Amino acid sequence: MRERTKKHLTEISIKGMLADKILIGPEENVEKAIKALVELGFKDVSDSVPWREAFPEYSDDQSPGVCLAGARRKEGLTQKELAKRLGVSQSNISEMENGKRPIGKKMAKRIAEITNVGYKIFL
Length: 123
Known about the structure:
The protein is an alpha+beta fold and 123 residues long.
């Protein structure tokens, strides 16, 4: 009787916007599969670092403020200009950007209208 030989299988993870897939197949075809995926526009990001690790100075409690500063700069607004459009003082904007003052839901929605971004990033 012939003895079955066990083939070594290799696991490839494919993570995308719609689904996470884990594929198992013959080890000798891994390079072909990777080459085909690269040709389809996929990129290997296995050595990438999460942004929170790369920028530890921006802790979770400061993230809304960092987003506010970025959105304001994207629109080419100074703190003073944004404050005037919102009807608040420039110091309030500064405190929000530095994480010393929370950004409430109503304020986040007002800022979002001016900066053309989704309000949830400020919460």
